[in-house]
Protein 1
Amino acid sequence: MVERVRVKALTPPGHVRAPWYLRGKEGVIERPLGHFANPEQLAYGLKADTKPLYRVRFRMAEIWGEGAENPDDTLDAEIYGHWLEKVDTHAP
Amino acid sequence: MVWTGRAVLPSLLTMSDTTGRRWHDMGGQDAGPVPMDGHDFALWEKRVDALMVLCGQKGLFTVDGLRRALEDMGEDAFESMSYYERWIAAVNQNLVEGGAYTLEELGERMQEIAARGSTYGEAQSDG
Amino acid sequence: MPHDHHDHFHHEGMSPSGHPYRADNDTPLTYWQRMEIAVRELLVEKGHLTPAEIAAQIEAMDARSPANGAAVVARAWTDPAFKARLLENASEASREMGFDIGPLNLIAVENTADTHNLIVCTLCSCYPRNLLGLPPDWYKTRAYRSRAVREPRTVLREFGLELPDHVTVRVHDSTADMRYVVLPARPEGTEGMDEAQLAALVTRDSMIGTGLPHRP
C-alpha cells in the first residue's frame, strides 16, 4: 500500500535536515531506512534519541507547481519521522 | 574525552530573512551556471578532512556538530572562506565547546606557530 | 611532530595520486592554516590522536577514488547476482569487493532506458566519499546545490548531457544518513569486454549522474 505523507511546515531555528523546499509538500514513502540518532540533538552535543528515517519520493509538480521543469520527474529525500505527517487518502 | 553535553543556542542571525529559512538550505534557489573548475587538495586541506573524520570516530563531536557550526558561521563565511577554512573553523569550535582544549591554549599555540616561519611548511613543529 | 608521512613513500611534493599538491607549503601562512596546525598539535599532545592515525587517515582517503566505484559498476554489469545484491544493499556489496567504506550507508540507484538518476546534497556536501573519494568542487557549489533539484535537466545540459523527454529524471537529495551512487546503464557495443575493460569506461560523473560512461 502506498503511504502518502506530508513534510511538516515547521520553521524552528537551528540545525535541522528537512529541506525548506520540501516543507508542506506531499510525497510517498519509497522505503523505510531504519532508525538513526536525531541530528537535531547531535548537532548540539546532546545525547540523541533515535528516530525513524524514510526515503520519501515527491513529484516535481508537487514541489514546484506550474513552474516544474518536468512535472513527472521525481525528487527523493530522506526525512525523519518526526518531520512527517500522514495524509489521509480517503478524505472526502 | 566524552561530550559533556551542553546545549549551544543556534544563532538566530544566520537566517536569510524572517521566514526562518537559513542560508545553507539552498535547494531550489536561483543561481548561475555550475562552475566546472576544480583543484587538487592541498596537504593542509587533507589534514583538516582527516581531523574531522578522526574526531568523529573518537567521539569528540559529530558531523552534525560540524554542520551546525558551519551553518551558524553564516553566509558571509560561505562566500569569503574556502571549504576547508570553514571546516577547520567548525572543527575548532566543536572542540572548544567540548572542552578538548581551551581558547587560551589555542591562541598561544597559533601565536607560537606564526613565530616559526612565514610558510605552512616552515610552521610545522619540526621546521 | 615527524615529517609528513607521505614524504617517506612518495616523490617530494607529489600527492599519492601523482598530482602535485597545491603549492601551499611555500606560500604565506594563513590564519586558518595556523589554526589547523594548532588544533592538530593540541589533539596529539592531549592524547586524542596520534600523528600516525592522521597520516593513515589521509592515506586511506587518498586511496579512495572513482576507480573503486567503477570496479563496483563493472562487476554489476557482468554479474547479475552481484547487481541484485548491489541494488539490495550497496554497502555490503562494496565491502564484498574488498573496499573499506567504513560505516557508509550506501544506496545504488539504477539508470535504465527510461530512468536517469542524479545525486545532490542541497544542505551541505554529502557524497559517497568512502567509496568514490572526496567530491569534485562543483558538487559543493551554490549553483549545483540550488539548481539540481529544481531544474536537473538544465543542469545536466551544462554537463553536456541532453536527456530525451521519455526518460524520467529521479533526483536524490542526500539529506540525512544515506549516501547514493548511480549505477549507470552499460553502454552498447561492450558485449565482449571484461570487467577491467568495462571499469575503464565508468567515469566519476556517471556515478553522480551528471554524465554517462564512455563508449568503447
Protein 2
Amino acid sequence: MRNKYLLFWCLVSLACTANGQSPNDGLMMPKKQLCILAQYANGSWTEYWEGENKRENSNLGKFVAQSYMLMGNYGLSKRWNLILGVPYIQTKSDSYLKGQQGIQDLSLWVKYHPLEWSTNKGALNIMTTGGVSTPLTNYVNDLLPLSIGLRSRTASLRGIFNYTFNFGLYTTIQGGHTWRSHTHIDRDSYIFNNQLVYSDEVRVPNVADGSLRIGFIKPRFQTEIWIEKNACFSGDDIRYNDAPFPTNKMIATAAGFMAKGFITKQFALQASISQVLSGRNVGLATTYAAGCTYFFTVGKKADANAQ
Amino acid sequence: MKNTSTLLAFAMLIGLVACDKTIDSATTLPYPETSLESNAGNWKTYQLVSNTEIPVPAPEAANSAAYLAELDELKNIVANTTEAQKEAAIFWGGNGVARWHEIARNLAAQYNVPPNYNADGTYPAPDPANPTAYPRFPFANPPYASRAFALLAVAQYDALVAAWHYKFQYNRLAPYRYTAEINPLIPENDLPSYPSEDAVVAAASREVLKFLFPGEKPLLDEYSTEHKSSRLWAGANVPSDLAAGDSLGRLVAAKIIAYAKTDRMGQANNQAGVQSLRDDATARGITQQWHSLDLPARPPMLPFFGNVKPWNFNDSTKVAIRPSAPPAVGSDAFNTALKELQDLAKNRTRKQWEIASYWADGVGTYTPPGHWNRTASELILEKELNEIRSARAFALVATAIQDAGITCWDTKYYYLLPRPTEVDRTVTTSTGIPNFPAYTSGHSSFSSAGAEVLAYLFPDHTSELIALAKEASESRIYGCIHYRFDCEVGLESGKKVAEFAIERGRNDGSE
C-alpha cells in the first residue's frame, strides 16, 4: 500500500513559511495513479515571538489564517512522482488593518524513489524531492503578519528516509533546504539589520526544515505523529514593537498528529492538528486541518503489480 | 524520463537564481565644483547674527614653515593611504552635506518605533536623560523627524555661510595647489580650503545629531572622525584646515542647539494640557472629538507640536493661515467623504494599495519629512550642487517641511477631527492609523511644502514634484487614513507655508 497522504503547509509562521510542507513523506503514487487532495486549514495565534521575546499585542489581537489547498500527485512511473499544489489563503486579525486574501504560490515538486531494500520484516526507502514555487498573484507581501505570503520564488531539495515494517509501523526522517529569491515590496526603502536600505528589493532568507514522523499505516487507515523544525539560515529579528518583515529570521518547532481513513477504496478523509512549541519571529500557532483525498487511475491501468 | 530531467534542471536553475543574495545600493561619486560661490559668505543666515559671530583665527600662510610641515605630513598620509581609506575618501567626498542627511534619515527610521504599552495599560515616555534605556529617546515620529532635518540643515547652512566668509577672507587654497606631489583622490577645485567645509559640516552635523539622537554619540563621533580623516586621505585638506573647520562647525551647532532648547519642542508632549485643548474645542462647538484607536488608548502624539516656533513666519501668521474648519462629523460633506472611504475599504485596487504603501512612511521608516529629504538629496546630487548650495537647498526644504508640520499639528489639535475608522469601524486601512487627529493630513502638508520649495529650487522638475506631492496626499485616501478634504486642505496649507521659505530663498543673497 503506497497511497500518498499529503499533510501540507502548516501555518507555523507569522504569516506562513511559504515552503510547501507536503512532499516530505515516505510514500509514492503508483504509475498513472493520480490523487487529488482538497484541504482546509485554520491556523491561529495570539502570542508570537518578537525575536526571542514571546509577547501578545493588543492592537493585533488574534491572528487567523485560513487556507484552502488543492494538490495533485501523479505517478509518472513507479519511481517518479509529480506533485502540484496551489493554496487560496485568507488572513484576518482584530486590528483595523485590512485582512488579506488571494491565491498564493504555485508549487511543483518532482519526487524520485531510487532505492528500496526489502527484508522479510520491512522495507527501507530512500527518496528525494526537488521543487519550485512561484507566486501566482501580485499579493501584498509587506503587511506581515496579514500578508498571505512573501511573494518570493523558491526552489527546494530534500532527502527522505522511510522504514516501514510489514505490519504497518513506519518512521520517516526527512530534511530539506529551500532557497528563496529576493522579493519586491511596494516601497523603496526599509530597515534590514538596523540599517536603512534604499531599494524595493528585499532579501528573503533561505530556510531549512527537518522532521521526524512515526506512524502506522494499513490499507484503510493511517495515523501519524510528528515533530518538525523550520529554520531560516539568516535574517534579522522583528524590532521591539515593530511589525514583522520578509527579512526576518523565522524559526519554529512544531508537533502534530494526523489521522486518515478510507471511506471507499478511492476516497479518504483526513484530519490533523499541529502546535508550534517554540519559535523566533513566528506566531505560537495552533493549526488544524481537514481534507479529503480522491484516488483514480489516469488512462488504462498499466501496471497490475502496482501495490 | 526525459521530461522529468527537464523539470529537475528547471528546478536547479530557479535554485541558482534564487541563490543570488546581494542587494545593490547606489553610491555617489565625487563631482567637481561648478561654482565657487565666492559671495556665499554673505548669504542670509538663520541663527547666526553675522558671518563673523564665530571667530576663526587666520591660518598660517601657505609659505610658512608650519604650513610646509603640514604639507609634508599630508604627503606622507596620502602616500600610505589604504584601500579602505581611499574608499572612505570617495564615500565622504561626494557630498558631505547630503551624506549627513542620509545618516539622519537612517537614525530617524531606526528611532521611529512607538513605545509599547506597559502591563498596566500606560505607555512609557522616552527619556532624553536616559536615551538608551527602553523606550529609547527619541521616538522619531514625523514631527520630531521634521524638526531634526531642519535643525541639521540649518546648522550645516549657517556654519557653511560663516566658513565661506572665512575661506575667501583668508584665501588659503587646497594643499594640491601648493605642491605637485599631492594628487587628490577627488576632483580638484580652487575653493579656498581654510576652514575645511567638510570639517565644518562633519562637526555641525555631529553635534546637532548628538543632541537629537543622544544615544548615538559614539557612532556619530566615528562618522565625524572618518569624514574629517577622509579629507586627509583624499589629499584635499591639511590638518589645520580641519581643526579650524571642526571648531567653527561645533560652535555654530552650539548656537543651533541653544535655539532648539527654546523652540518649545520641550513642551510639545504636554499630555496634561490635552484636556484644555478638548475643552477649547468643545467651547467652539466641536463635540465629536478624536480619540486614540490604539489599544490601550495611547496618549496623542505631540499635542503641542503646533506651538513649536516656526522657522519662516511667526506665531500670529501661523494662526492667520490656519485652515478653516472641516465639515462637521455627520454633515453631508462629511458623509460624502466618508462614503468614498467605505467604498475604498471594500474595493481597494492593487494599484491604490501600492500607492498607499509606497507613501505610508510609517513605523520604522524615515517618515514623510524623511521621504522628501531623500527627494531633495537626489535632486541635489543630480544637479551636482556644491556643499553650500546643497546646505541652502536642504535648509529651505527642511524648514518649510517643519513649518508645515507645525501648522498641520496646530490645525489637528484645534479641530480634533476623528479618523475615518473611529467614525466607522468597517473602514479598514492598508497601513497603521496614526495616533493623532485627522484634519489636516500631515502627509499632504509635508509633501506639498517639500514639493513646492523643491520646485522653486529645481524648476525643471516642477510638474513631476507637484504630481508626487499629489500622489502622496491621495495615498492617504487610498489607505483610508484620511478623508479627501483632509488631504486637499493639507496640500493647500503646505503650499501656503512653502511660500514663506521660497520668499526667504529669493532674498537670501544667493540669487
Protein 3
Amino acid sequence: MFISLNWLKDFVTLPKNISPRELADRLTRQTMEIESVRGQAEFFDRVAIGKILSVAKHPQADRLRIAVLDLGREKLSIVCGADNIKTGQMVPVALPGALLPNGLKIEKTQIRGEWSDGMLCAADELGLGDDHSGIMILTEKAKVGQALADYLGLDDFILEVDNKSITHRSDLWSHYGLSREIAALFDLPLKKPAWADDLPAPVAAPDSLPVTVHEPALCARYQALVLSGVRVEESPDWLKKRLVAAGLKPINNIVDVTNYTMLETGQPLHAFDRDKINRLDVRLSKNEERIALLNGEQKSLPGGLLLIADADRPLAVAGVMGGADSEITPATVRIALEAANFDFLTIRKSQQSLGLRTEASIRFEKFLPPELCSFGLSRAFNLLKKICPGLRVEGGLIDARSENSPRPAIKVKIDWLNRRIGLAIKKEKAVAYLVRLGFQVEDQGDELLITAPFWRTAKEISRPEDIMEEIARLHGFDQLPLTLPAVRLSAPDQDKNLLFAQEARKILVYNGALSEVLNYSFVDEKFLAKLNLSTQDQVALANPISAQQTLLRSALAPGLIANIIANQARYDETGFFEIGLIFQKLPGVWPVGDQDGAFLPHQEKRLGLALAGADGPVVFRRLKTILTALAAAYYLPLEFEKTDIFPGWTEKNLCAALVIAGRPIGLAALISQPVAKRVGLKKSAGFAEIRLAELVELAAGRQAHYQPETKFPPIKRDLALLVDKNISYLDIKNTILAFSPLIRKIELFDVFAGDQVGPKKKSLAFHFVYQAERTLQAEEINQLQKELMKNLAEKFGAALRDF
Amino acid sequence: MQNHLLKLKEQVLAAIAEAREGKSLRALEIEYLGRKGRLTAILRGLSDVSEQEKKIVGQLANQIKNDLSAAFRQAEEVFSGQAGKNPSFDVTLPGQAGARGHFHPLTIVLEKLEKFFISLGFLVLDGPELESDYYNFTALNIPPFHPARDMQDTFYVQPIAQQAVGQLVMRTHTSPMQVRAMQKYGAPLRVVVPGRVFRFEATDTRHDTTFYQLEGLMLDRDISLANLTAFMKLMLSAVMGQELNIRVRPGYFPFVEPGLEVDMSCVLCGGQGCPSCKQTGWLEMIGAGLVHPEVIKAGGLDPEIYSGFAFGIGLDRLAMMKFGINDIRLLRGAHLPFLEQF
C-alpha cells in the first residue's frame, strides 16, 4: 500500500523537524514496516522543460526531425520521431542521466548520424497516463528550464507500507486511520474532518430503492444513498493526483470518489447505476448463478457466497467486485451509493472461491467495524456534492443495521502488565498511552478496566495480551531493559540422532573426503523411472511447482547420483553425502493432531553416500572403507553380506546388505551398467544408504573397554588360501574365527586373481594371530593350521597357496 | 627362494637399526653386501633354479640390494653427523594436502547454532517435514480462511489411499514443533527446532521453494518481552561472533502476541547503510514474539501460569551473509566448485 504524506497532513500536523524518513523510521519501530520513502520529484530527476526554438528535417531519415530547444542555461539539439512538435511549444525534456518511470535510461547518442542531447517525452513515457500519440505539450504556465516535477506540483512523499505487517490492523488501511495512529505516537491532536457525519436524515422505508438484508449475520450494516443529477466525467486534477500518488488509476469521477473515500477513510464503497437496478437484496448465492464482473470475467458462482442482487439477477459479489450490468457509464445520471459492512469470513470465502482479491476485499477480510460505514458514506457524499453541483438526494439515508454487540471491557492487572513486559511502567504512564490510542480506561486501583475504541475491532483487541502490546509498543520495544531470563538449571537429554549426525559429518568429511549436500525433498518421477526405481510408495505433491519436482523422495541415493552426474564433466572422482529426511506412504509415528489414531506418513532420517570413479571395484572398496571407518568410530564391526533384496538400479552381485551385529542397517551397491547408460552416468558409481536411527541405536553406549595385556606372546603367521572365485570372504572369515579360540585375530591383506592361480580361482591372504593364556608352541600351531586347512578344504575346496 | 630373500632383508634392516656406531655398520655391510657377502652368495646359487624363476628372483635380489645400500648410506649420515647439514633438505616444502571433503555452509551455521543452544540447556529437536494442516496452521491460531494462510503459499500433497489423515502440507515453517514440543515435554521448556521448510513460490537468487529455519521456544513462569529482546541480542551476537545492536519492531504472526521483527545492525557496513541493508543500516533477521495464549492452550498448558517467547530465524540468509553467498540456489544440490570452498 502507498501512503501520500500530503494526504496525511490533512488530518495531522507533523512537527517541522520530523523528516519523511524519520516518520517512516518511527512508524517502522512502533506500528508497521515502511519499506521505502520516495519523494515524487525523484521520479522526474533530470527531466526539465524546454521551449522549441526550431524544427528541421533530419538529413538522413524522412520520419525523424531535429528540434533545437532552449532550456535556459543551454540550448540542446534533440532528434525526435513524433510529428506533433512545433516551434514555440513547451515540452518535457529528459536529459542525459535521467531514468524514466518506464525504466528507460537517457544518454547522449547519435541517431542516424546526428547527435541527440536527450529525449522529448510522451505522457506514457513519464508514467503520466496512457497517451503515446505524441510529445506531451505543456500549458502556458510552464517555464523554460523548470523541473518537470515542479511544474506538475509533485511535492509529495510516498511511503510504501509492507501490507503483511498490518494484516491484523484494519484501522491502518487508510490515510485517516494512519493519521490517527501518527497522532497517538507523537502525542499530537487529530483534526476532526468537517464532513464527518454530514448525511441526510434516514428514511424508515425507502421509496427511492427497496433494500433488504436477508443475511444480517453476514452484513451488520447496509447504508446507501440514491443520488440524481449526476454527471459522469473526468475527476478534477487534485483528486486524480491523490489517487495516482496512492497507486490507483483514475477512471471517472464517480468511481474515483468511491476509491478516494476508501483510501481516505478505509471504508470500501460501491456505486450502482440506479436506472439499471430495481432493488437491493443482500443474500446468498444459489448454485451456478451467473455474474459478469467488472473486470470482464464471467463467473458461475457456487452456492453460499454473499451477493448484492436485485429482483432479476446478481449485481455484485458483496465486498469483492461489482457486476458489469449495473456499472457506471458516461450515460449514468442516477446512482445508488453503497457503504456496507460485510463479515470478514464470508469475504475470504468469496475471494478464495473467485480467486480474486481487490482493494475492497483486502480491507473487508481484515474485519472492519460497522461504525465505519457512515464515516465513509458522509465523506463520499461530501465529495460528490463538490464535484457534481446539480446533485440531489432521492428520499433519505437508507440504513439497514443490526444491533452492535457491546464491547466487553478488558481487565488488566498492573502487576501482570509489568511482569509480562519486564519493566515497571507506572500506572499513570500506561493509562496515558492507552488514552492517546483512543482507549477508555477505568482505574480500579491495582487493575485497569479497558475498552477499545470502535476502530480497534474485537477481533484484534480482546485479551490482556493485546493491551500489553499497545502499552509496550507506545513505550517503545527498544526502550525495554535487556534482562535475560532467570531459569532453573536443567540438562535435557539431547536427541541422539542429532549428536550422531554432528560427529558423522566430521568422519565423512575428514576421513571419507566426501562433500556434504542438501538436495531438494522433491524428486523427478521420470528420473526415478530411468533409474528403474519403483515410485508406488512415494507421496505425491498435489501442486508441484515444476515437472522435475513431483514426488517426495523416498530415498537419498537417487539425488546423490544426480549430484554425481551434474559434476562428472569436471571431476574424475566425486563423493557426496547427505543426512536428510525421506518420506513413505505407510503411517509413521507423528500424530496428525486433530484426528484420534491418525498418523502422518512415515518420515525417517537417512544417511546417504555416493561415490564415483573410473573403476567399479575401487569405488566400491572406497565406499566400504568409509562406512567401516564410520562404524569403527563407535566400536561397531560392520559386515557386508550378500542380499536378495535390492533396488532395481543395481544387481544382486553388485549389492551388499550393511550388517552390524546381525542387524541390517542399510545397503551399499554399485549402479548397474544399463541403468548408468540410461541416465547418462559416465563413471562407475556406487552408493550406500543407512537408516540413521538404527545405526544410532547400535552406537548408543558403545565405548572402549580396557583389556590388560597378556604376558604370553602371540604367534603370527601368514596364510594364503586358494578358493573358487564365487566363495565369499565373509564365509571364510567366519569359519576361520569359529574354528579355534586360539585364533585371536585374522586380517585380510591381499586378494589376488590372475594367471598364476588359474582362471577360476582367487587367492585370499591373511595375517593370523594366535594367542592364549599360556605359552603357545610352534608345533601346536602347525597342527592347528593343518586341521584348519582340512576343514576349509572340505567346506570351500580351499587349498594353501604356495609361492 | 623369494621368502628367503625377503627374510634376509628384514634381518639386515633390523641389524642396521640396532647398530650403535659407524664401525659396526661397516662390518655389517661387508658381511651382507660385500664381495663374499651373504646376499652375493645367494645370487650365485641362482644357477640351480629354472630360467623363469631366475628372472623373478634376480629382479627381487637387485631391488633388495639397492634398498639395503640406501639404508646403509642413510644410517652412515646419522653417525657422521651429516644428516642435519644436508643442503638439499628444504624445510619450506609444503606438507601433503590429505584428501578431505567439505561441510555444507548451511550445516556449518546450523551446528554453530545447535552448540550455542545446547550450551544454554536448550533441547534441540527434529520434526516432521510433511505436516498436518492442524499443526501447521490451526494449532498455531491460524484457522481456515485466515489471511496468514495466503501469506504462506503452501505445497499440499495428494491424498493417500486408505489413510484418513486429513489435509497434509509441506510445513511452511518450523513453528508446528512449538505445539508438538509443549505436548510432549510440558513446561518449563527450552527448545529449538532447526529444519527444512517449504513455500510454493517462484525461485530466484533470494527465494527458493525450500529453505531452512531455526525455531526457538522458551516457556516458563513470567517470561517477559524484555527477556525476549535481551535474548535476541545475546543470540545474534553469539552467532555473528561480535557484539551487535538490534532493532525490535512490531510484526504480525498469528501465533505470537505481540509479534515482533528483530533486525540486527548491518554487519557489512556497521549500520552506516550499504546495498546489502538497502541503505537502512539494519538487516531483517528474526520473527519473534510472546507465545499466543491460544497456542499455549493447544500445547496443553495453562497460559495463566506459563508465558514464553518464540522466534524463527532464517538459516539460509544467515549462511549467505556469513559467507558472502549471493544466490540461495547454490545451497541446494551439489555444485562442487561452490561446495569445495567450505
Protein 4
Amino acid sequence: MINAWTAVVLAFVLWYDAAIALAADRVASFYSEVVPGVFVHEGEVAETSAANRGDIANIGFVVGDDAVAVIDTGGSVTEAQEALAAIRAITDKPIAYAINTHMHPDHLFGNQVFKAAGARIIGHERLAPALAARAESYRASMREQLGPELADAVTITPPDEGVSAERTLDLGNRPLVLKAWDTAHTDNDLTVFDERTRTLFAGDLVFMKHLPVLDGSLLGWLRQTPMLEAIPAERVVPGHGPATAPWPDAIEPQTAYLEALARDVRVAIASGQRLSETAETAAKAEAEAFELSEDYRRRNATAAYAELEWE
Amino acid sequence: MKTLPSGMGRNLAARWGRPSQVALVAAALSFGVTSVSLAASEPSPEEAAAAADSAWTDLKFDLFGDRKLVEGTDVVSLEAPKRAADPAIVPMTIRLDPEKDIRKVTLVIDENPSPVAGTFTLAKGAGVTELSTRVRVNAYTDVHVVAEAADGTLYVTKQFVKAAGGCAAPAAKDPEVAAREMGRMKLRDFGEVEGAADRREAQLQIRHPNNSGLQKDQVTLLYIPAHFITDLDVERGGQPVFSMTGGISISEDPNFRFTYEGDSAEPFHVKAVDTEGKVFEETFPVTAS
C-alpha cells in the first residue's frame, strides 16, 4: 500500500514531467517547418496585449548549410526568447542574421535577444531613421498595450546594416534575396525571398485575415503590388494571417481592399465630403471581410484621405 | 507666437513638469508597492481626465483672466470624434452662430504639452461661421473652444476626446515627400453652402511638417526643434477673411475648411510664416465650382 508521502512525491513527479513535456512541446511546436529548411511561427490575429505578449505577427527562420537567418524577431523579449529556444532545439548552426521586415514593434521588439545571440540585424536603409523618430511613441504605446513589465524589458534595437535596393545573403548554399521597397505599408518595407524553396517572406506588404494597416503610402502600396506579384514565389509568408499561402493568389483580398479604399476616398474628396465622414464609411464593406476592421479601418481611411487630397 | 497669451510659457513649463512628477511618484511607489496593485489602483482614462479638470481652470485663467465664460449656449459648438482614429490627425469642426458676430476663436486641447492649438481672428462680415481643422491629441482630453463676440462676450463649449500619442508621433509617414513639398498650397472652393445663398465654403491646405518638436533624436538624445506655422493670413479681394496664430498642436499639412460670404469673383491670397521665418505666399485665382 502506498503511503501518503509517496503519493505526494509521485504526484509531484507526474506534475513535473507533465510540465517539462508541456514546455518541450511548446518549444517544439513554436515553429513549424513549412517547406524544407523554412520555419514559420504563426502569430495570433489580434492587437498586441499583455496576454499575447505581442505575439501577433508571423516570424520565421531559414537554415542554410552554414548558418541561420531569422526573419522578424517578435513583439516582446519573452516571445523572442521562446523563439530562440525553439530554434536551438532544431539547429545549432549560428544565427548569422536577424532580418527586420519593417519598423513595427510586433516585428522587431525581440531584436535584442537575437543580437545578444550573435546575429547581425539587417533592415531597410530607412528603418533606422524611422525607428529613431518613433522610438518615444512606440515606448509609450507599447507600455499601454504590452503592459509596463513586458514593454520595459525592451531595448529598441536598430539594425546594424541597411539595405538600399537589393542584397543577397548566403547562409551556405542557400541565398536569401533581400529587397527594399519604396514607401507602401511603411517607408521601410523589406522582403526576403528564399530562392531554393521559392518562399517569399513578405512582411506586412502582405496581410491576410488581419485588415491591412496603412502607415506609409496607399498609392505606393498599390503601385508596387504588381512588382510584388511578379516575384517567382510558390508561397508567401504574410506578415499576419496563416503561416503560408499560395503566391500570388494570397494578395488578392488585400488588393481588393486597398483599391476600394483609394476609390472611396477619391470619390469622397472629389465630392467635398469631410475627413470625419469619410473615415466612418470608406471601404467599410471591404474592410469587414477582414478581422480587426473596427480597430483599423477608420485610421486607414484617415491616412488615405490625408494622402490623396494632395493628388 | 507673439499674440499668444503671456501665460503660455508658464503653462508650457507646468506641463513639462508633469512627467517628472509622475516619475517621482512612480519611483516612490515602486519601493513598497507591486506593479499589480499599482495597476489596480490606476483610474480609468475618464476618471483621470475628470480629475485633471484643474488643467482647464489654470488654462482658462492664463488665457482669459477672470473674465466670465458663457456656457451651454448654441453660439459655439464643436464637432470632434469621441475616439480619434489617428491621434496625429483629429478632425475638429467649430460652428458659430451667424447672428453673434464672433471675431475670435481659441481652440484649446487641455492635456496637450502646448494646449492652445490655434487662435483664429475672424474679420468683420467675412462670414466665417464654420471652421474645420485637424489637430494632434496627446492624451485623453477635454477640448475647449472659446468664441469671443464683437461685444466682448466669451462663449465656451467643450468635448472629451479619447486619443493618445499624437504629439510624440513622428510627423511624416514619408519624410522625403514631406521635405520635398514643404510650402505647397492648395485652395479649393466648394461653392455655395446648401441653404445659405450668401455663404460659400473653401478649404486651404498647406504642405508643412508642422513638427511638434516632441520627438527625440536618438543619436543626439536632444529633442528635434519644433518647426511649425506660427502665423497665417487669408484674404479675399484684398480684404481679410481670417488669420491664425498657431501652435504645435495643428496637424502636419495644416488644413482649414471655412465658410465665407460673398460671390466667388475675388481671388484668395494666403500668407503663412513658420518658426524658421520662412514665408509661404500664394494667390489663388477664381475657380467657380
